Amino acid sequence: VHPNVSQGCQGGCATCSDYNGCLSCKPRLFFVLERIGMKQIGVCLSSCPSGYYGTRYPDINKCAKCKADCDTCFTRNFCTKCKSGFYLYSGKCLEKCPDGLEANNHTMECTSIVHCETSEWSPWSPCTKKGKTCGFKRGNEVRVREIVQHPSAKGNPCPATSESRKCTVQRKRCQKEGKGKKNREEKRKKSNKDESKETRQESKGRAARRQNREQRENNNKTQPKKRKAPNKEQDLAPVDTAH
């Protein structure tokens, strides 16, 4: 044992020295050498830093360096993230993606080329001309489809999503919307007016009948009863003068 080895170390070290830092680590910690200028110092960490991968052995757990083009790696031959300027593909860091793949500058990975996909065409629309479906013989009809998968950078672009073709229909007159609306409005007003007139006439009739009835009742109350007229036959009867 080196004379400078100490047993009372801190920072996860099991053994250490004043000159070299940690010489061994406590259980489950990883030993890694950090370079400071021309000097290397041993440290003990719970996980390996960027650019290193961990290996476990019965006597010590160590952090080993990834390849020069790897930023992080699972093993020396399997990268999980590449350094700037490289694209990750199947655990390797490449300057250029293989054929059939394209570079994704957002994830810095080689990904499959995605081509555009569209839905089926919709049925043809009614034959129209200038937004109308009447008043013409020849017009146009259209159909559309939707994009269900947008392409990647190297994928096939999307085709047209709408088509138009000439169409022929039997000519028919267009009803003037303003005139028809005006006629409907006039009919409605006339109907309301007739209904109001009938309602007013009925009200007047009821009021007149009620007034006549009340007048008759008042007359019957104020006029005296008429005396019964004498019987003319009795008045003209002959007078007995025998006595």
From TrEMBL:
InterPro entries for the chain: Furin_repeat, Growth_fac_rcpt_cys_sf, R-spondin, Rspo_Fu-CRD_dom, TSP1_rpt, TSP1_rpt_sf, TSP1_spondin_dom
Chain residue ranges for the region called Disordered: 169-243
Keywords, ordered alphabetically: Disulfide bond, Glycoprotein, Heparin-binding, Repeat, Secreted, Sensory transduction, Signal, Wnt signaling pathway
Domain R-spondin Fu-CRD: 11-110
GO MF term set: heparin binding; signaling receptor binding
Subcellular localization, as worded in the UniProt entry: Secreted
Its job: Activator of the canonical Wnt signaling pathway by acting as a ligand for LGR4-6 receptors, which acts as a key regulator of angiogenesis. Upon binding to LGR4-6 (LGR4, LGR5 or LGR6), LGR4-6 associate with phosphorylated LRP6 and frizzled receptors that are activated by extracellular Wnt receptors, triggering the canonical Wnt signaling pathway to increase expression of target genes. Also regulates the canonical Wnt/beta-catenin-dependent pathway and non-canonical Wnt signaling by acting as an inhibitor of ZNRF3, an important regulator of the Wnt signaling pathway.
Protein name: R-spondin-3
